Amino acid sequence: MRFSNLIKIAYRSLMKNKLRTILTMIGIIIGVASIVTMMGIGEGSSSSIKSSFSSLGVNAIMIMPGAQNNGGVRSDAGTGQNMTVEDADAIREFCPDISALSPIVRTSAQTVYGSQNWHTSIFGVNTEYFTVRNLKIPKGTCFTMAENKSSAKVCIIGETVVTNLFGAGANALGQTIRINKIPFRVIGILEKKGQNSFGQDQDDVILGPFYTVQKRMLGTTNVGQIIASSTNEKVTNKAVDEITEILMQRHKILDPEDADFTIRTQSEISNIFGSISTVLGVLLTIMAFISLIVGGIGIMNIMLVSITERTREIGLRMAIGAKGKDILLQFLIEAVFLSLIGGFIGLGLGVLFSNLVGLFAGWPIIITTNSVIFAFGSATFIGIIFGYLPARKAAHMRPIEALRYE
Amino acid sequence: MNDKPVIETRDLTKTYTMGDIVVKALRGTSLKIYENEFVAIMGPSGSGKSTIMNILGCLDVATSGDYFLDGIDVKKNTANQLADLRNQKIGFVFQAYNLLPRTPAIENVELPMLYNPNINAKERRERALEALRSVGLLERAASMPNQLSGGQQQRVAIARAIVNDPVLILADEPTGNLDTRTSFEVMEIFQKMNALGKTIALVTHEPDIAEFTKRNVHFRDGSIFKDEMVANPRNATEELKKLPPKEITI
Ligand SMILES: Nc1ncnc2c1ncn2[C@@H]1O[C@H](COP(=O)(O)OP(=O)(O)OP(=O)(O)O)[C@@H](O)[C@H]1O
Ligand SMILES: [Mg+2]
Predict the structure, then answer these.
(1) Which of A164, A228, B1, B231 gives a 20 to 30 Å CA spacing to A253?
(2) What is the pLDDT of residues A138-178, one digit of tens each?
(3) d(CA A121, CA B187)
(4) Within a domain: B154
(5) Which domain holds residue B125?
(6) Does ligand 1 come within 6 angstroms of the Cβ of B16?
(7) ipTM score
(8) B250, part of any domain
């Protein structure tokens, strides 16, 4: 009964000065909106990184030319010109724990069909690449081993390429496109994958036979990268050791420290990016929390000013029977009201912002119940903490002095 | 005269100290006000009228001496108990009305009952409307203070003072900001309240306002120097009729 009266009192005095109420809330609105947005971005990116790496296959192993750069000061890092098809063949032959393997070369080129042209990435891979990357070709077929050996001018293209060269939904199968002026026949269309967690369009790609891209387009004998799959998750690390040994032998390297290649497993990478995005998420949340605290200080400032301004009102309330604790609670309730309503509006805006960010920047966004609870909890917390000081100041006024205040 | 004092003070003193300066605002005041009395407290500026009103209203405490309000020894009460006394035993009317701005008259009148846990929302509204009716402002219940004249605002303040049915109404210069006609209107309301049994003490500088009350207590230098009954209190309703008709200024 008494408490409901206090709520009524607080509500009435907030409604009495709507502009002040709104100004006080703005800090909290911005704080909560940014917490929700930041947490949404953080959650979204870390979970999409996790899922995109697991779609790559938990057993995937990437072998890249160039030294491990975890020492930081290696001078020969990233030379990247020392891995060959023979290395790939040797791994396949001597590493028993590998089930599929593909060398990769990569370039980018202008592609032309009719009057349309499009700049995109071209990957040269072998048939096992599709197994390792878990790629499907719902329309058309993959090229054969023979086509790879003979550097056949065939390719499999992603949906984005189809859209840009042929128009959305058009039938591209069997058509001939020109890549760097070389005619290629389209024999397959990749299953649509959308954006990966870094915002790259995974459908903006052309896959051709390894030798076709390596010899006809790049004119080199090097391999950009080798991607492999271990037979199962348990032997991944063993496979890595075997590959390391094979390559060291082939490259005549004695000390693993001097290796001119880098091996990464899928789980390693997903852990690294997972933890990066967790750290990023935490940082973003801390920043958002700081803005919430600034919002709280805003509440405190405006409440301190308004308490001074309302000194006579406080005196009057005391003169007609308000106790110190009634005044304290009134102002605390006002502060919590402000924070909660601000929190609610902030939540709405946060959801809106995150979706806009998701829409325009193409970032994945996930808003969890936890982040909503966290946003509300911290808004209330801020309200109580920063409302308490001014409220206490008001409660400790002596009625006669408050009444006389001018 | 009734034999039960609503107010009884014995040797009240009040001293204000500001650094080296010591002001003796009250120097041993003993005063009894009985039930259904209507007292005007008069005296020159600085004689201690507001000081004693604030002590009687439990807004301030005396430096020494005793004060019994409705038989309660006020000295023995904590700050919270004093708040309850102010809420339930006293209705205070201020010179400057002290209504909450941007708050309708009805809500201003409801205010003391919001601090009274024994009154529910329905009763609160009913009693506030009744109080507004008794000051003749029922139809202005929804008006904001700035939409009311000074006299009307003071009547809302009186409604607020009586709404918790206090044993004592205290008013410090309630007509101080008002012209003759509205002063008389306010006094008419006080006389009506007094006729209904309320005990009222008010401070005024104006002898013709004091003539509407039943007893005049004169202060000088912090003590009572004259305390006399008014032989024939003026009747505010009659006096209002004698006033020239309300001027209408454009
Ligand atoms: N808070 C205070 N601090 C210091 N001195 C005060 C305070 N309040 C009142 N006084 C002093 O106490 C004396 C009595 O003041 P009080 O306000 O009671 O006078 P009053 O009779 O109400 O005068 P007025 O008719 O002008 O309202 C004065 O000398 C005044 O200066
Ligand atoms: Mg005074």
Answers:
(1) A228
(2) 999 999 999 999 999 999 999 999 999 998 888 889 999 99
(3) 95
(4) yes
(5) 5-242
(6) yes
(7) 0.92
(8) no
